[in-house]
Amino acid sequence: MATYDLDEQERLDELKAWWKRWGSLAMLGLAVVIAAAAGWRYWQNQTVKQSLEAATVYEKLTQSLAANDAKGARDAGAMLIDQYKNTAYAPRAALLLAKLNAGAKDMKSAQAQLEWAVANSKEPAVKDLARLRLAGLQLDQKQYDAAMKTLSASHSDAFAFRFHDLKGDVLIAQGKPTEARTAYQAAFGTLAQDDPYRNIVELKLDALGGESK
User: How far is residue 29 CA from its own chain's centroid?
Assistant: First the structure.
């Protein structure tokens, strides 16, 4: 029993010595862990709150568009871009506002909103769609070099045929039928046999003469 008591005392003394040397640092580390966990929970809660609020504003945007309330749509869209830019709703709002402004012949604002969506969207599909619309806008304004630069950015395979097809349109506008044919052929080659858009690309190739493949 005496040996047992001595062993216990030695362990207790070792623990006291360790705590004296490292106790403050251990408490600091624990405090950091607790603070980090609390910060993570706060960030999660704020993210959920932001998303819910953004969803409400986005609904107002779509309702305003449906009611042909351009001012209401622009106000809701601006709020999403300014106050909820880190949510998935903001880039979508930019796409809708770009379409609204393009319809109103405000190409400068439409282009700025599409560029914002390209720069800020975290979703590849939304980013690709914004690039395609931006390139289309640039084509309409005869900004051919800018359109080709936009279309030369990396994109997902799901949108490959649209990027190639639009490149062909830009090259036709530039008076480069040979290069346009190559782009259309690339678009044609990515489309499934039953894809209805395949016929449209084939008509473009036929207009240039030669084989589709």
Answer: 37
Crossing angle for the helix pair 89-103 and 2-66, nearest 10 degrees?
10
Token pair of 16 as six digits: 């006291």
Cα first-last separation, the chain:
94
Question: pLDDT (tens digit, 9 = 90+) per residue, 65-84?
Answer: 999 999 999 999 999 999 99
C-alpha 170/C-alpha 153 separation (Å) is: 15
Position 181, amino acid: R
- 53, containing H or E segment: helix 2-66
The answer to whether the beta carbons of residues 57 and 82 sit under 8 Å apart is: no
pLDDT digits (tens, 9 = 90+) for 168-208: 999 999 999 999 999 999 999 998 888 888 899 999 999 98
From residue 173, alpha-carbon distances to 130, 170, 187 in Å are: 21, 5, 17
| CA pseudo-torsion sign 168, 197, 192, 160 | positive
Burial class (CB in 10 A: 0-12, 13-18, 19+), 174: middle
Show Cβ contacts of residue 14 under 8 Å, excluding neighbours closer than 6 positions. none
State the Cα–Cα distance between residues 138 and 149, nearest whole angstrom: 10
Integer CA distances (angstroms), 117 to 26, 78, 109, 201, in order: 46, 13, 12, 28
**Placement of tokens 């190739």 in the chain:** 205
